[in-house]
Design goal:
The chain is α+β, with helices and mostly antiparallel strands. It has helices at residues 2-22, 69-74, 153-156, 182-188, 218-231, 236-247, 253-269, 273-282, 288-304, and strands at 28-34, 39-45, 56-62, 77-82, 87-91, 99-106, 109-110.
Length: 305
């Protein structure tokens, strides 16, 4: 009971923080992920109609979580960006854990406020050393078939565009046979000539580059652990449960969208194509090209089954 009350209180505090931030010059939904060697990418969202108006953003970095104004004032600004910029790639020379905050600048000066998970990161991130780091990884062998092929993964799953509706002949007079002329009979022999009843079924799981190597903390770390323990092992029933639980708590936007795509795949490989379709549609704007083939296949599987 005490734990439940604590969770309710924490949720209320976080909701109040987020509501407050939406009307103030505060960067929203900060997300920090390792990219290529020696690169860390920071992204955020811009609030609508903030008061006062945002004139730019300041990026600060430290080796520990940034939690106080005294700590913030002692840090140097590593980047000063325009007001319409929503991402920054930091180049680091070592592989220590780094924490970031994005401070909005206004005509009155920097808006010095720190909100965990909103404009300041709560998990330390290390830059990737290289693609062969000795950290935990989700290897391609866990997600691809054992058959060797020189074709790229995306090319191996050839999906068609949504077909034109197939016209049908309806016998409206059951007492009178429908007779076709010689030309129609000859033409009918070619109808469906190339149709062999194939299902456009996808057999290979898709894993985003961000989730191939274990991050050091934050939402991405928890998502990686779920994928490695369930999804990569093709335990889709457990994956559905864990991902739904993961998404029941507010996460960073990019992590939530990737988690939703994995959830959609888990439903798909569990043959629950309707739920798969719903989740693929949810993230189709974020991943239009990738989602299309899964949406097409889900529709085919629903139609066939």
């Amino acid at each position: 009971m005490k734990l439940k009350k604590l969770l309710i209180a924490l949720t209320a505090v976080f909701t109040a923080y987020f509501t407050f931030a939406q009307s103030r010059p505060v960067a929203l939904d900060i997300n920090v992920v390792p990219k290529e060697t020696s690169k860390i990418k920071i992204t955020w969202k811009i609030p609508e109609n903030s008061e006062p108006a945002i004139t730019g953003f300041l990026i600060c970095r430290d080796t520990k979580q940034i939690t106080s104004y005294e700590q913030l004032s002692s840090l140097g600004v590593i980047a000063q960006l325009a007001s319409d910029i929503t991402e920054y790639t930091d180049f680091v020379e070592d592989f220590r854990e780094y924490f970031y905050c994005v401070i909005a600048n206004t005509d009155n000066g920097p808006y010095m406020i720190l909100l965990p998970s909103i404009n300041t990161s709560v998990g330390g991130i290390r830059a990737r050393k290289n693609m062969n780091v000795e950290n935990e990884v989700i290897t391609p062998s866990e997600t691809a078939s054992s058959k060797k092929t020189s074709k790229p993964v995306d090319v191996s799953e050839r999906m068609r565009d949504i077909p034109l509706p197939t016209p049908g002949l309806v016998d409206t007079n059951k007492n009178q046979a429908v007779k076709l002329g010689p030309k129609a009979m000859n033409a009918s022999k070619t109808l469906g000539k190339n149709y062999v009843g194939k299902k456009n079924k996808i057999t290979k799981m898709h894993i985003f580059e961000e989730d191939l190597v274990c991050p050091e903390g934050g939402d991405d770390y928890f998502l990686f652990k779920i994928l490695k323990a369930t999804f990569a092992k093709k335990d889709f029933k457990a994956s559905i449960k864990e991902l739904n639980d993961f998404l029941s708590v507010r996460r960073s936007e990019s992590t939530s969208k990737r988690a939703t795509f994995y959830l959609a795949q888990s439903y798909y490989f569990s043959k629950d194509y309707q739920n798969a379709l719903f989740n693929f549609l949810t993230v189709s704007e974020e991943y239009p090209k990738l989602s299309k083939k899964w949406i097409d296949s889900s529709l085919d599987m629903i139609e066939i089954n």
